[in-house]
Amino acid sequence: MGRHVLPHVDESSVRRAAAAVTVPHTWLKVPMEPTDAGDWLPPGWVVDKDEAGHLMAVDLQVTDPVVPKGYTAAVETDDGVVRVRVRDAAGDTAAGGQMALLGRATVVDLVTTEEGHRRRGLGNFVMRTLADHAVAEGAELGILGATDDGRALYETLGWKVHAPLAACIYRPR
């Protein structure tokens, strides 16, 4: 299982990327309308309209975030992936996210806030912490694929939508 994100869309790139996948439940995110993506996919691939979203980007800047009261945060790096984890007073995971640097850009992924901890600034904190770490490592541009729900948070932080994002998953029979 894995995720692949194509930065540019053309039929041969989509077909080549999809054909290279052999592991079931691997995702392919493509900056195009979900309704059009299926035409370029080989057998075994499905366009998951529920997972479609928005390709977003922002020029990164340092903001020195402070973890919200009642929570603690840890930042860990493992094999080039930076993860932020926020825990509540009981030590349970409340929010988190991760990023990977690609030259002067960073790709943010898997930003979540648990249901009982929403509307407390945790997503904002996670995003700003990831951005600060990316800038410290030399990144200038942030890129992510947003769900409809996540888009609202990212827009409050200055992120802009640049394209629709089709979510395709390999489900061979």
From TrEMBL:
Annotated protein name in UniProt: GNAT family N-acetyltransferase
Segments traversing the membrane: none
Signal peptide positions on this chain: none
One Pfam family this sequence matches: FR47
Residue intervals of the N-acetyltransferase domain: 42-173
Top-level taxon of origin: Bacteria
